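Please review the protein record below. Let me know how this chain folds according to its tokens.
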Amino acid sequence: MDWTKIFSEIGIFGIISGLIVWLIKQLGQRYIDKGAKTHEQKLQNQSDLYKAELNQSLEKFKSEIAFFSQKAFKLHDKRLERIENLYSLLTNFYEDMFHLTTWKVVTGMTDDDVNRQNFENTKKAGKSGTNFFKYYARNKLYFDKDTCKLIEEIIKLLKDSHFDFSYEYVFGPMSADFKFETVKKATEKIREKVPEIKSELEDNFRKIIGVYE
């Protein structure tokens, strides 16, 4: 038996076996590395896609916020304008109605002159009231229900009072007692009840425009 030849063949076989094992390991490692890189790339692509979708959603959200903020600012500006105009008209109407409740000492005027002046004052109050009613009716949607309730309470009190002062011009002369009671009730509404509700309305307006403390 040629042991030298046998050992030589075994050595060559071992080398070949080692090479095969090394080659298998290398191929396996490359496969693992390739799979890991592929998975890593897939995760990166998914991450990039998610970031892109997130950025797109964020930009859309920012755009919607800007739109609704601008819309809210415009609405608030319109409400401020309506409040300013409505309050001015209400003040005119109330001052004209309050003027009807004041007893006027007039010198150098006859009774007819006084009655004519009272009639003109009543007409003036009616006109300012009409302007106030019309403006409120056209802009009612800018006010919430609580505000509308206060405004409409004032409208009813002032309209009823104006009717009381206008009664004799529509239906003719009244008896002294009837006229006294009618004017008395109207005066109480204008001087006592209206200011209370008007004060509540003013507080309501202050909250809306942001000056309420």
The chain has a mean pLDDT of 80. Residues 68 and 74 are 10 Å apart (CA to CA).
